[in-house]
Design a protein that fits this description.
alpha/beta; TIM Barrel; 8-stranded parallel β-barrel; 8 strands; binds 3-methyl-2-oxobutanoic acid
Length: 279
């Protein structure tokens, strides 16, 4: 059964946790969909994990449409949410609606996600009025990395926490169907979750949210270097890939691969005939 906005809303009401993972391609989306994840997010984190940028800022609308379409083809049941990249909605309501429309129309997304609170409520209202669900994103919003001066936990001071609660209420009032809470203290996320009627989906926001999201390269152990505190590595797929690739290199070099079972045969008479013709 296809997950929709109402599926997520019902899960909040019944207390059944919402599961969301990022994906950026058809094969990964298909595996996640077959495992039964509720929602797949084509995050603009693709800038870092797929395209090798330092942050999400260089990601373009064309990048997002391309990867969203690939994920949509693999996601039969999951609710597909596509990120609106930097400067695709901050520049005004018309840009926001047009670009959200591309993600839905060309990419096949079921909803779009954008970062910010009070300052993007007009955009949320306009996109929802154009019949496209919007997931909001509050807290450590990566597109504001230069304002925050790095990827830092948000909402730790009373003033900052109050602003986040106010932003959450405002984006709900503007029509958002859910909100991602990233990099905020667990107790603040619990307060926000209890005040909202729409689901909260946490990443680095503790266990009190209505659901959780992780970047799949992080949770499957594909990323190297520093692992943020909030990431749990559920598998070491990177190790598995390294072993497979090293074995391949060794077997090709030694001549062990391809073996008989990987090889197509031809009738001896055909070869004999060929050899005669060649002679
Ligand atoms: O871009 C992304 O992957 C995200 C998640 C971290 C929520 O926005």
């Amino acid at each position: 059964m296809k997950n929709t906005v109402s599926t997520l809303m019902k899960q909040k009401q019944s207390g059944e946790k919402i599961t969301m993972l990022t994906a950026y391609d058809y094969t990964t989306a298909k595996i996640m969909d077959e495992c039964g994840v509720n929602s797949i997010l084509i995050g603009d984190s693709l800038g870092m994990v797929m395209l090798g940028y330092e942050n999400t800022l260089p990601v373009t609308m064309d990048d997002m449409v391309h990867h969203t379409a690939a994920v949509s083809r693999g996601a039969v049941n999951a609710f597909v949410v596509a990120d609106m990249p930097f400067l695709s909605y901050q520049t005004g309501v018309q840009d926001a609606v047009r670009n959200a429309g591309r993600l839905v129309k060309e990419g096949g997304a079921n909803a779009v996600k954008l970062e910010g609170g009070a300052e993007v409520c007009e955009q949320i209202r306009a996109i929802v009025s154009a019949s496209m669900p919007v997931v909001a994103h509050l807290g450590l919003t990566p597109q504001s990395v230069n304002v925050f001066g790095g990827f830092k936990v948000q909402g730790k001071s009373c003033e900052n926490a109050r602003r986040l609660i106010d932003d959450a209420l405002r984006i709900q009032e503007a029509g958002a169907c859910a909100v991602v809470l990233e990099g905020i203290p667990a107790r603040l996320a619990e307060i926000i979750t209890s005040k909202l009627t729409i689901p909260t989906i946490g990443i680095g926001a503790g266990n009190g949210c209505d659901g959780q999201v992780l970047v799949y390269q992080d949770m499957l152990g594909l990323t190297t270097g520093h692992t943020p505190k909030f990431v749990k590595r559920f598998a070491e797929a990177g190790e598995l890939m390294r072993k497979g690739i090293t074995d391949y290199i060794n077997e090709v070099q030694s001549g062990e691969f391809p073996a008989q079972e990987h090889t197509y045969s031809i009738d001896d008479e055909v070869i004999e005939q060929l050899m005669k013709e060649e002679a």
